[in-house]
Design brief:
Blueprint lengths: L7 H4 L4 H13 L1 E7 L3 H12 L4 E5 L14 E2 L11 H18 L5 E10 L5 H27 L9 E4 H7 L8 E11 L2 H14 L3 E4 L2 E8 L2 E8 L4 E11 L21 E12 L8 E5 L4 E7 L2 E5 L3 E2 L11 H11 L14 E10 L13 E7 L2 E6 L5 H13 L21 H6 L1 H8 L3 H11 L3 H10 L6 E2 L2 E5 H10 L5 H8 L2 H4 L5 H15 L3 H21 L5 H8 L5 H5 L8
Parallel strand pairs: 1-2, 1-10, 2-7, 4-12, 10-18
Antiparallel strand pairs: 3-6, 4-6, 5-6, 8-9, 9-10, 11-14, 11-15, 11-16, 12-13, 13-14, 17-18, 19-20
Length: 592
């Protein structure tokens, strides 16, 4: 539980000093719930448990959202395509969560984005007219059912769908090829910066008293007979024990690794990794005001507006190589370009690509040999008393997954109250609408442009006041970052002092998206960002240079992997880059 004399904003700051204090807590306290994994499910579980008044710790081997949770399609959605698979409960559940996020829990982070479902034209014959009518009826019924489910849960948060003619569709998306287009259906889903969302969930958990520590890896479990009593961890310099009454493993595509801790127990499910690759191109490459959702032979293809960019994705292929750094190959890039160019009047070229990122979906295995058919349901199992594993699911339903696993934990921690996260806004949500209405006055009072204030409000909500305080104290922080003028220097300082960033890659790839939103992929920004981070983290000159070198090596390795013809060659090229932790060896001690 947090100290009530400390504000919720201050209690949620993941500063270097807070990390040192939380590390001491890991060594000294016994927790009710210890969560392994800092993705959206782990952060959600930490928040759910902390909101019930439990003593909670979350550990993450790398950085918050370093894996799957920072490499998604950036959508909060019900899963329109799951209606075809008759997964009605999953769609209903996801739409309820979408409504909660857009209206109550995180309206500052999740906002509506319109999509078109293009309808194919047919030959001018009786059969062609019939097929065209069938397509409109079929897709229209699906989207209508999607809206109906959203209405049933009472938290729609999105406009209703609308049928469009060919001319109407091309007015909204002029780049749509006229040939073969009979019209479209417009519908809405939610959009989110996934990594920023995870950080906000983790900070909300911290504001309620949870210890949140990154850079700490679980290496095994502590046991008394067949009961798990904690976890053995390593912080990179030494190993120590963390005691807990219940351990929750929310490790996504690493779930199978838990079996190495349990030679005498079976987990009960298998997680299969499916690689999804996304391309980022400038808005000037495609002319349109809305997104697209397209069918391919093996997956669904999205063209998603993303600020001054488009995100094009995704692939859906098995991945059995390095899970920490899934690589996009030339084959993946060619696949996406070939499919999106089938519907565009001007092809997107390789030279248009600003960034590429790849992530792994943790799918529960067993239903089919095709990854696109594997279940997006989640599972909670208890292979040993006191050890819970949660896996599967999707980003949108993270809160349900978290609630389910903590409900299971609560059975052995009674008395524990029920989950209240459906009514608990994330940090930055309270008062956001009023601050948004007053953004012009806010800009005037702090000497910033209206665009800069809007940028901050859409990323931090009412936490923007903390960034403005940094700028007021040091006006140099209102300057834009080199190579990324839409971002302010203050955001780098804030990422380190309040959001738990410990390495240059944490800032450029997750706290901001400079790594894939710029053609230089953050290289031109790296030095200034590292110089801003240095005084907060106590880096000396050698550490600054090591961080910059490690980041540049990472970018070059990613570029090289994307020139490789297949997964094996791409993986080998990507692994040539040293991990961010290699630079940490030269770092000064974290401030106590």
């Amino acid at each position: 539980m947090r100290d009530r004399s400390v504000s919720r904003f201050a209690a949620g700051a993941l500063s270097p000093e807070r990390r040192s204090a939380d590390l001491r807590r890991l060594r000294e306290e016994e927790f009710d719930v210890l969560i392994v994994g800092g993705g959206v499910t782990g952060a959600g579980a930490a928040l759910d448990a902390a909101s019930r008044g439990l003593r909670v710790a979350l550990i993450e081997a790398s950085d918050l959202a370093a894996g799957t949770s920072s490499r998604s399609s950036k959508l909060i959605h019900g899963g329109l395509r799951y209606l075809e698979q008759l997964e009605f409960p999953l769609v209903h559940e996801a739409l309820r969560e979408r409504g909660l996020l857009t209206t109550r829990l995180a309206p500052h982070l999740v906002r509506p984005v319109p999509f078109l479902v293009p309808l194919p034209s047919e030959q001018r014959s009786v059969s062609g007219v019939a097929r065209r009518a069938w397509h409109r009826l079929y897709y229209g019924a699906g989207v209508a059912l999607y809206d109906a489910f959203a209405g049933l849960v009472g938290q729609r948060g999105m406009p209703l769908h609308r049928h469009l003619t060919q001319a109407g569709a091309r007015r909204l998306f002029p780049s749509l090829r006229e040939q073969g287009l009979a019209g479209a259906i417009r519908y809405y889903d939610g959009q989110v910066d996934d990594a920023r969302f995870v950080v906000t969930v983790a900070r909300t958990a911290a504001s309620l008293g949870a210890a949140v520590v990154t850079g700490v890896r679980a290496v095994g479990v502590l046991r008394q007979a067949r009961e798990v009593t904690g976890v053995r961890v390593s912080d990179g310099t030494e190993e120590f024990d963390v005691r807990a009454r219940t351990v929750v493993a929310a490790t996504g595509v690493w779930s199978g690794d838990v079996s190495s801790w349990l030679p005498d127990a079976k987990i009960g499910f298998r997680v299969r990794a499916s690689k999804g690759v996304h391309l980022v191109v400038p808005r000037s490459a495609i002319t349109g005001e809305v997104g697209l959702i397209l069918r391919t032979a093996s997956s669904v293809l999205f063209v998603i507006p993303w600020g001054g960019h488009w995100i094009i994705g995704t692939t859906d292929t098995d991945w059995a190589l390095d899970r920490a750094h899934p690589s996009a190959s030339a084959k993946d890039i060619d696949y996406l370009l070939s499919h999106v160019n089938e519907v565009l009047d001007r092809p997107v070229q390789r030279s248009d690509i600003e960034g590429v990122y790849a992530g792994l979906r943790p799918l529960l295995s067993g239903e089919s040999d095709s990854t696109s058919s594997l279940s997006r349901e989640h599972a909670v199992v208890e292979p040993l008393l006191g050890l819970l594993l949660v896996a599967g699911g999707k980003f949108t339903t993270y809160r349900v997954m978290a609630q389910d696993v903590i409900d299971r934990a609560a059975r052995r921690l009674r008395p524990v109250r029920g989950s209240g996260t459906a009514e608990l806004p994330l940090l930055g949500a309270d008062g956001w609408q009023a601050m948004w209405r007053d953004r012009a006055d806010l800009a005037r009072r702090h000497g910033l442009s209206a665009g800069a204030i809007e940028h901050l409000l859409e990323r931090y909500g009412t936490l923007t006041t903390e960034l403005l305080a940094l700028i007021d104290a040091d006006p140099a922080l209102r300057a834009p970052l080199p190579g990324a003028p839409e971002h302010l220097c203050a955001e780098v300082v804030y990422a380190v002092g309040h959001e738990g960033a410990r390495h240059l890659v944490d800032v450029l790839s997750r706290r901001t998206r400079i790594s894939f939103e710029t053609s230089h992929r953050g290289v031109e920004t790296a030095r200034r960002a590292a110089e801003l981070m240095a005084p907060v983290l106590g880096w000396d000159g050698a550490t600054v240079e090591a961080e910059i070198a490690a980041y540049r090596s990472r970018v070059e390795a990613e570029r090289e992997s994307q020139r490789m013809p297949d997964d094996a060659a791409a993986d080998a090229a990507r692994l040539a880059a040293p991990p961010a932790s290699a630079a940490a060896a030269a770092a000064a001690p974290t401030p106590a």
